[in-house]
Amino acid sequence: SEKSWTDAAGQTVRSFSHGLYTDHVFTSDGKEIATISLGTKTSGDGKIALQLYDKEGKQTAAIQNPEITKGTSDATVKVGNSSILQKTEYDTKGNETTKTDGNGDQISYAYDDQNRVTEITQGGQKTKVSYQVNSDGSTTTSVTDANGHVKQETASASGSVTTTSDLGDGSESITTKYTYDDRGNKISEVYANGAKKTYEYNSRNLVVKTQSYDKEGTKTLISRYRYDDYGQLLEMTDYRVSSETETAYRYTEYTYDQRGRITAFAEISQNAQPTADDIKAHQIRYTYNEDGNLSKVSYPTTKDGIQSLSYIYDENGWLQEIKGELHSNGQTTEKVLRSYSYDAYGKVKEIKDYRNRLKNGAQAVQKIYTYDSFDRVKEMTYTDLETGKVMESYRYSYDKNSNITEKTEVNNYPKEEKDKVNETKAYTYDALGRLTKTVTTDHKNDDRTKTVTYTYDKAGNRTKEDDGTTQTAYTYNGLDQLQTATKEKGTAVDEVRQYSYDANGNQTDVKNTKTGQTESYTYDAENRLSKVSVTDKDGKTAVIQQNHYNGDGQRIQKVEGSKTTNYYYQDGVVSYTTDGENSQTSQNLIGTDGNILATQRYGSDHTDYLLYHKDIQGSTTSLVKEDGSADATYRYTDFGETTINGDNKAENEVCYTGGIYDHSTGLYYLNARYYNPEDGRFVTEDTYRGETAKPETGHLYAYCANNPVNYVDPSGHKAKTVIYYNKKGKDFKKQAMHSPYYKNSQVTFKSVIKKAQFKKEWDKIPKGTSELYLYLHGGVSCLYFDGSDMNLKELLALKKKKIKKKIVLLSCKGGIGDKNSVAKIMAKKCQCVVYASSYPYGLSYRYDKKKKVYYPRYGGKQNYYNHQNPLKKYKP
């Protein structure tokens, strides 16, 4: 439940949401200057966050955990040793000129007379940005990095990107071109090598067909899409094309409830159109409780073992238990697989995983979590309750940018003493947040130390790695593509690897001069890795891996020699696998947050149940069997090179940061791309080209901006965020919760009342968000909140965000206001299509009792338009 308390001025001074209390402190002019997180209690000391403002109302500082000395009638606040201070400075036009992080490192910005960024300086390195308006009204933005390498993007007058170009140092380039129809829909993207992908739409601007062509112009793949009356995707069918003959190979089927939440999802790999029985046999089914929380997931397996998971919550919506429906020898029983308890601030304090699928306290792994004052994980301890022995433990320290500075790890699961772990790693970073040094102290071997250092060029290419024994030097071309990696031991060259790329920037060959072996990579028309082969020194070539994908770009099949693995997904995570005979080989059990907590592996006459143990990054550390021993344990280098110890009978692939480890190639499949941990780089360019104001995001090959200890590369799973106004009597909570827009439950809901709350939630919109829905009160060029309005100036001051697909603005008059409509401002801020009302009337909702959904209505009509082009209509 949610509650709020207001003062005489109508300001929310206390809020209660999902079992937690938060106090809000305001200045006399209504600015929120402090939030105090009280947790489950209603009084006493809490976790304090301060915001300071200048006289124009712009936030100049944020202080977490300030030191407060209370007097008799007032209090003194200062930044203490345990506080984190972040500062922002502005020019006279309100542009951010300098931002200082918690460690005291700065990033500075310069602007032109149109308030566009022209220069970014960070860590003594400069990135320059220039703009050119072309004769057709388009604008070309050029970004020159600290190495002098250039990237360009041209956008039409309506804001649609028409070309992206990597010009590098001018010696070679990669250009991708895009075209659009008269409604602003992208209808083609043409890659540098001449291959292309085309898109077709229905009258509601929903994609109904995509086609892929190779560089010779031969059609290779087709995907077709079918929708219901509410624009919800019902079916995606993927076809291979050979000699103009289409052959279906993958069907994806969706079913929804009256609220538009997904209730069933099926993936079928076959040529014929699936029957109702085919679909049912492959369905993952979802059930929800009255609060909208996921309450049950049923799997399509026919094997003995867990066939469904139930999620039990308390009155605050906190997950308490995960139960499994266990089928064995014709009997069905319900077992508690995992239980949770929480601290006073709603953080997970304890997890118990019952390794034998029975709620027996002596046969469980107890996982204890503690946190520091900034809610960062301080310790994780995994104890086997049957033996009472601590099997794994992790202890972390952080700097004031929340980078991990020290990690102590213990793992007692390995059978061999030499494989057991008891070590401390100390990490050092430069002013750009890049990992520069790791010192490992081995407590098992007289605290012996080993140091690894990393050196980078100005653009973020790793130029040297030195572990004290081996030094590896790297060279690059003007497009930041790795050219050579030379390993030396002492003064002798031990190995040289030479790299080649195709016209699209995909890595195609790696030649090892020491072994004479060449690894070759082949890609499909959409730049997805389709084949890996190895040629030995005698010229003999063997294919070691082949990959196939569905219309969403997910890998659905991997063939390695005589072994075939077919993949099926649940919300972007591998749910289960089958072999070449379509016999199920595994079933992963997945929590509400997409985390794989256990797996079932099916043999010819048995089912094995194994628990996943993970570190703070989500990397698998141990795979624990029902008897409490480990099937395998895992070690990783800083950038993810993987060592597996133990029997590994389960042949687990979920390893570093939860990615899929391909043993045959040494690469990680991370949904969007393949990652090579030995080089710390991806083998293909990133389609996400970064944010101009954040130079570290612009590198198209580097992994996690060279900070692998603290960040995990996005998997590509797209998120939906909803922000709604929630003042009692004028709220949009029901409309937001019961909207026909959402296709599944993977939606983040945020409620706001005050303008400051909206600004805060806007700032927190995560990278990777694909769709944003705003249920707010509004007018011409403004938004209305409790106690104050967000005027044009404040709208223009909102931080830029990257929304991948669209914003739906459910607000009165959102599309009115010439160039300064709320919709157009947000489109510019977020570089995406915004749908808003073009009618000068109030927004209302029609409630469908039968379907239990709310439909927005504008002046009696349901009419949306794309602010970039009034011809484009949109219906939910």
Can you describe this structure?
With 876 residues, the protein is mainly β. Among the domains are: 418 residues, no CATH class; 156 residues. Helix content is 4%, strand content 53%. It has a 52-stranded antiparallel sheet. Strands 60-59-61-65-66-69-70 form a seven-stranded mixed sheet. Strand 23 and strand 24 form a beta hairpin. The longest helix has 9 residues. The C terminus is likely disordered.
In short:
This protein is mainly β and 876 residues long.
Main attributes?
52-stranded antiparallel beta sheet; mainly beta; 876 residues; 4% helix; 7-stranded mixed beta sheet; disordered C terminus
Describe the secondary-structure layout.
Layout lengths: L1 E5 L5 E6 L2 E7 L5 E8 L7 E7 L5 E6 L2 E4 L4 E4 L5 E7 L5 E5 L5 E6 L5 E6 L2 E9 L5 E6 L5 E6 L5 E8 L5 E7 L5 E5 L5 E6 L5 E7 L5 E9 L5 E10 L2 E12 L5 E7 L7 H6 L1 E6 L5 E5 L6 E9 L5 E10 L2 E12 L5 E7 L9 E8 L5 E8 L4 E10 L5 E8 L9 E9 L5 E8 L5 E9 L5 E5 L3 E7 L5 E8 L2 E10 L5 E6 L4 E7 L5 E7 L5 E9 L5 E6 L2 E8 L2 E6 L5 E7 L5 E7 L4 E8 L5 E5 L5 E7 L5 E5 L13 E3 L4 E3 L4 E3 L4 E2 L36 E7 L7 H5 L9 E6 L2 H9 L5 E7 L1 E3 L2 E4 L2 E3 L1 H5 L9 E5 L11 H9 L2 E4 L6 E6 L4 E6 L5 E3 L2 E6 L2
Parallel strand pairs: 59-60, 59-61, 61-65, 65-66
Antiparallel strand pairs: 1-2, 2-3, 3-4, 4-5, 5-6, 6-9, 7-8, 9-10, 10-11, 11-12, 12-13, 13-14, 14-15, 15-16, 16-17, 17-18, 18-19, 19-20, 20-21, 21-22, 22-23, 23-24, 24-25, 25-26, 26-27, 27-28, 28-29, 29-30, 30-31, 31-32, 32-33, 33-34, 34-35, 35-36, 36-37, 37-38, 38-39, 39-40, 40-41, 41-42, ...
Distance between the termini: 28 Å
SSE-based structural type: mainly beta
Q: Assess the beta-strand content as a share of residues.
A: over 45%
Helix percent band: under 10%
